[in-house]
Amino acid sequence: MTVDLTSLLEQHQKEIWEFKQKESQWIRDKNLLDGNKRIIEELSAKMVELGKINLIHKELNGKLQTRLTEVEEDNKKLAKQIQDLNNRLSS
User: Fold this and answer.
1) What is the SS3 string spanning the chain?
2) How many structural domains compose the chain?
3) What is the pLDDT of residue 1?
4) Distances (CA, A) of 82 to 7, 13, 87, 89, 90
5) Tens digits of pLDDT across the chain (91 residues)
6) Rounded to an integer, what distance in angstroms lies between the CA atom of residue 90 and that of residue 14?
7) pLDDT of residue 3
8) What pLDDT is stored for residue 91 in this prediction?
9) Domain range holding 74?
10) For residues 27 and 20, what is the distance between their CA atoms, to the nearest angstrom?
11) d(CA 29, CA 25)
12) pTM strictly above 0.90
C-alpha cells in the first residue's frame, strides 16, 4: 500500500509540475498576444493618420499644380506681349 501511495504521490506531483509548465506557457503566450494586439492597434491608428495626411497632401498638390499651370500660362502671355512690343518698337 505504501508503494501505491508513493507512486500516486509521484504521479500527482508530476502532473502538477506539467500543469504549471503549461500554465506558464499560456501566460507567456497571452502576454505576447496582448503586446501584439497593442502594437497592431497603434499601427492601425498611425495608418489612419497617415491616410488623412496623404489626402491633405494630394489636395495641396492639386492646388499647387493648378497654380503652376496658371503661372505658366501667364508667363506665355507675358512673353507674347513682350515679343509683340519688341516687334512694334523695331518696326
Assistant:
1) CHHHHHHHHHHHHHHHHHHHHHHHHHHHHHHHHHHHHHHHHHHHHHHHHHHHHHHHHHHHHHHHHHHHHHHHHHHHHHHHHHHHHHHHHHC
2) 1
3) 67
4) 109, 101, 8, 10, 12
5) 677 889 999 999 999 999 999 999 999 999 999 999 999 999 999 999 999 999 999 999 999 999 999 999 999 999 999 999 999 988 7
6) 110
7) 73
8) 77
9) 1-91
10) 10
11) 6
12) no
Alpha carbon distance 70, 64 (integer Å): 10
Q: Please compute, for residue 40, the number of CA atoms within 13 A of its CA located in the half-sphere on the CB side.
A: 6
**Which amino acid is residue 56, in one-letter code?**
I
**Residue owning grid cell 503549461:** 22
